[in-house]
Amino acid sequence: MDVHNSWTRQKGKEMAETAFTYASDTLPDETVDVVVIGGGAAGLNGALMLARSRRSVVVIDSASPRNAPAEAMHGFIALDGTPPAQLLERGRQQVRHYSGRVVYATVASAEPADRSADGDLRFTVALADGRTLTARRVLVATGLRDVLPDVPGLAQHWGHSVVHCPYCHGWEVRDEPIGIIATGPASIHHALLFRQLTDDLIYFTGDTEMDDDTRARFAARNIRIVGTPVTEALTSDNGTLTGVRLTDGRVIARRVLAVATHMRARTAGVEGLELPMEDLPDNMGRRFSSGMAGTTDVPGVWVVGNATDLTAQVGASAAAGALAGAHINAVLATADTDAALAATQATST
Predict the structure, then answer these.
(1) What is the rounded distance in angstroms from the CA atom of residue 314 to the CA atom of residue 143?
(2) How far is CA 97 from each of CA 31, 39, 58, 88, 271, rounded to the nearest angstrom?
């Protein structure tokens, strides 16, 4: 990510639309082993593991990844600095190499269906264009959406000079004048992490409270505290972030703003699965609950990536998808064997 370029909100939208759309595979008519809802790193890596195990797998992807505004992803060994669109395109190619399918579409609904004749699970996924697909198992990898504070001018710099993750973008904003816009208790730790990256750090408290101990710790690290609320993020004529305006009219120059967003798992289209959800402490966000390898309380449904692990970077999400894919394949192998044994015994009888 280059925070010094002249990226604007409209330009970012155009880049995302052209970079993440792609040619779609056809939707199969027959029941498939697994449908993956979401074509990010978690979903594609789960599909890759399943396809390599000769499972019939279809990825339904709306091409709206969380990191679409970013110019590159970081913190993933060997792939550090890779543009998000390039990573996902390579992932789709690899899934297709093993006969998996990737369908560019939006899921309208997903819900359990009547079991098969041998008692195996079935799920029906309906797409926004009216097409439907039946699958034996479901892997949910819908990701999350970041909710920014309601500060005018902030959203247009999102993913460039307005950042959230010190590990995703920290190196790229090192030594810049950075401002932390507090959104809750988690912003305190956020400030300590960004202090590692710059000597010029201001903490805008907003409505959040700070006790004397926290103020002393900030003072020890030379983190300046501004208690006057921020009313606007300011942009220069060439589109770069220049600072913030406060409610008292003061303007404080900043080249970068860091915000701990409120993160919410994307639930649109999968409500019918009735997956359990939970709120994280300190207003950090809301996620799908999951267990080992992405298992859920709903039989036959797994959930991985940012939809359940809100702080996972690309590498962690991909790893979670691979683990879930292997687990789903193992469960299907047992179901296939149970069905074969039952058929053999019925024939013998």
Answers:
(1) 11
(2) 20, 16, 13, 14, 32
Strand, coil or helix: 88? helix
Beta-strand relationship, 101-104 and 107-113? unpaired
24 DSSP 8-state letter: P
| Single-letter amino acid, residue 79 | L
Element (H, E) at 319: helix 314-348
Per-residue pLDDT of the chain (349 residues; tens, 9 = 90+): 333 233 333 444 444 445 678 899 999 999 999 999 999 999 999 999 999 999 999 999 999 888 888 889 999 999 999 999 999 999 999 999 999 999 999 999 999 999 999 899 999 999 999 999 999 999 999 999 999 999 999 999 999 999 999 999 999 999 999 999 999 999 999 999 999 999 999 999 988 899 999 999 999 999 999 999 999 999 999 999 999 999 999 999 999 999 999 999 999 999 999 999 999 988 889 999 999 999 999 999 999 999 999 999 999 999 999 999 999 999 999 999 999 999 999 888 7
* Structure tokens, 229: 């609320």
Locus of tokens 């264009």: 129
Instruction: Place domain 149-260 in its CATH homologous superfamily.
Output: FAD/NAD(P)-binding domain (3.50.50.60)
Contact predicate 123/113, CB 8 Å:
yes
What does the alpha-carbon distance between residue 73 and residue 86 come to, in Å, rounded to a whole number? 10
Instruction: Write the single-letter amino acid at 78.
Output: A
Taking the CA atoms of 144, 148, 152 and 155 in sequence, report the sign of the dihedral they define.
negative
* 9-145+263-348 CATH fold: FAD/NAD(P)-binding domain (3.50.50)
Round to whole Å and give the CA distance between 243 and 254.
4
Which DSSP symbol is given to 298? S
**What global pTM score does this model have?**
0.92
Q: Where does 173-273 have alpha helices with state H?
A: 186-195, 212-220
Cβ atoms within 10 Å, residue 242:
16
Residue-range domain boundaries for the chain: 9-145+263-348, 149-260
